[in-house]
Design goal:
It is a single chain. This protein has 608 residues and is α/β, with parallel strands linked by helices. It folds into 3 domains: 3-241, Aminohydrolase, N-terminal nucleophile (Ntn) domain (Glutamine Phosphoribosylpyrophosphate, subunit 1, domain 1), CATH 3.60.20.10; 251-447, Glucose-6-phosphate isomerase like protein, domain 1 (Rossmann fold); 448-596, Glucose-6-phosphate isomerase like protein, domain 1 (Rossmann fold, 3-Layer(aba) Sandwich), CATH 3.40.50.10490. The strands form 5 sheets. Strands 3-2-4-1-10-9-11-15 form an 8-stranded antiparallel beta sheet. A 7-stranded antiparallel beta sheet has the order 5-6-7-8-12-13-14. Strand 21 (367-372), helix 13 (378-382) and strand 22 form a beta-alpha-beta unit. Helix 10 (300-317) packs parallel to helix 14, helix 10 (300-317) runs antiparallel to helix 17 and helix 14 (401-420) runs antiparallel to helix 20. The longest helix has 21 residues, at 426-446. The chain starts with a strand and ends in a 17-residue tail after the last helix. Bound molecules: 6-O-phosphono-alpha-D-glucopyranose (G6P).
Amino acid sequence: MCGIIGILGKSDVAPLIVQGLKRLEYRGYDSAGVATISKGNLDRRRAPGKIAALEALLEVRPLSGALGIGHTRWATHGAANETNAHPHATRRVALVHNGIIENFAELRRELIDKGYNFESETDTEVVAQLITYYLEAENMSAKEAFHAALKRVRGAFALAVLFIGEDDLLMGARRGSPLAIGRGDGEMFLGSDAYALAPFTNRVTYLDEGDWTVLTRHSIEIFDASGARVKRPETISSAADQMVDKDGHRHFMSKEIHEQPEVIAHTLSRYLDPATETVGLPKGAFDFASMDRLTISACGTAYYAGLISKYWFESWAGLPVEIDVASELRYRNVPYTKGGGALFVSQSGETADTLAALREARAHGQKIAAVVNVPESSIAREADVIFPMAAGPEIGVASTKAFTCQLTALACVAIAAARARGRIDEAEERRLVRALLEVPRLVAETLKHGAAIEEIAREIAKARDVLYIGRGVNFPLAMEGALKLKEISYIHAEGYAAGELKHGPIALIDKALPVIVIAPHDALYEKTISNMHEVMARGGKALLISDHEGVKTAGDGLWASIEVPTVEPMLAPIVYAAPIQMLAYYTATTKGTDVDQPRNLAKSVTVE
Ligand code: G6P
């Protein structure tokens, strides 16, 4: 999604803004731009495509000025061209925006009637024109005009605004989309997240929902939505230490796949006591013992992690689970129960639909828990209890290590819930804890199959469509496998419950269709293998992912197989995720697609 940078600096800021924008690239975007103010005058450069195109433009036509804003745009209203790229400017202001202005059409009509001309198709430009109207027609000060405009616009957004003629003034607002202030030494910064600010400062103040801010090089004023002056704490961000290089890998996605043994181990260490072989949860208002129903919701990959955990909560803890994608759950009339809990899963903690679903569940009296990777995120702040996942920053748009860390955290939570509800005894808890402690090693072993998987991926890269099938806990993993392949290789793929194959998708089987069968040697193995044989009997190419026993007993006629170490069956998705991710990764590298920033996708989807 869009990224925002604003700098009140000491010398020309355009190169620093570009540096900050590069750190926001991972969010996904399709055009970029910078505007600066120099001696009161505004100038800007904007370019469709990658930041490199903007840099090339700045090389030919540099921008001077010690005050500026920059933006990476993920198009929502209007194509990704130069005219629609931010910053948007009028004769009085320049502005960048992340999110959506829902009532833009109405405001645009109103302003056109008042004689204001629009140059772009964006919803954003309406805010720039509205501030201009308040400055000119209503003669307001910059601060008054910004606040008046904020009161008129509806939607979820973050904004940064420059005022022409003002060399020491930068304003920002946060409603729904994150925005942070960075304090330097005689310098001030605004950014979509602490990572973007990390090269400049580690002194970070997060705006709260509805806040807006007026910055100069030496002062920070923060106001809430009503206009009352408020104080927000300054924190020392650790984003600088965590940052971000590929560590010798060709892509962040490859690096992140290979980090999994380590980050899964870190996540486990937040929950497990290896000495006593028990699970502990963070303290908070989430009482699994008395809970009558758990509602789980998320988007994308995080949703599939939630779906796998449904099997765990049901079979280990005997806890009824309702699960839906957040974009549906938020608008359904869910009959929430009085003693219910709701659990939201999100890497970024900023996904607009997930946040809205959380608020909906809270409005219906549910206790709220969240599995989030970014501790300062909106979802983390609004939850009653946070179940941590220690994945570290995930830069590749296609989620990998965040997925397996979400699963790891959810497995621990489900085991603790099972104990709290008296559904498993101490011995079973110990057995499961021992099985979990083995997972990092098993993932590391699986990662050694890279070369073999790359070979298989060369064939997959030729396919037009791919099917993934699995049963039980491995059914959601089949859907996650299909999602990974779609996201980064642009090959159409579907994940199916193996038992559903004959109710439709089997009609697709021909010699050109690879079918990826996820079938550990567990209680459902034989059933899934029968489905695989139905595929092979119709000329389909079956790739079996299983353990030693599973590959050995699968019979003849396989196109290919990947052998994964034996793992406790319920935990298989955490280990089997690795070959699934590598298969998508190598298919994409074979095709030469943009692995870390696939077309049209955003890392953190802060619009509906
Ligand atoms: C986007 C990302 C996915 C992610 C989903 C949910 O679609 O590209 O990788 O799974 O959002 O994001 P969240 O941050 O809530 O986990």
